[in-house]
Here is the input.
Amino acid sequence: MNKDTVGMILAGGKSSRMGQDKSIKRINGKNLIELVFRRSEKQVSEMIINSNLAREHFQNLNYNALLSDCIPGSLGPMAGILTGIKWVRKNTKKKWLVCFPVDSPFFPKNLVMEFLHESKGKQVVLAESSGRLHPVFSMWNIGFELENKIEHLLKNGERKIDKISKKFKTRVVNFPDIGYDPFFNINTPEDLETANRIEKEFKIN
Here is the structure.
């Protein structure tokens, strides 16, 4: 656990391809929000959640704040990231916000440690695996310069994390394939079946 980081689960998506909010979908009896929360809380000092779900959906989780997007209009995960940056700056003295998407439960247990190892002189750190960028898995330096610029870009139509990150000093950290994609993303019922197989075969916890 790193004392200078706040973790945030991004669970505010529409889940249109799943047909139901993904965060309450289950892998071998455990829902996604709990799986992602348990794995991420061990790597950071505090946890917050970005979601439009009611508070009772998270009653078993020890988080510091439940946040809806600071900019309305369902602008995607970047709006959630900006929301988290604002909260961390206002409510803590932490240096970094680390983001974890609710639909990728198998991410590395050393994700934050590796991010921090590569963060010197950087404002943003992103994850990559097998030549593919996974920009929602990201770490953002807390500061007015970053916050104001992101807000300006969002309000002027830019939504993509990878494009916004290029406006800052960014490092991409590569993580190895470990028999399965550590950033496997669950979008559809078929993906959920695949996730169940991965969890059983590799005994992920």
About this structure: The beta strands are 2-11, 26-27, 30-31, 44-51, 65-67, 96-101, 124-129, 132-141, 170-175.
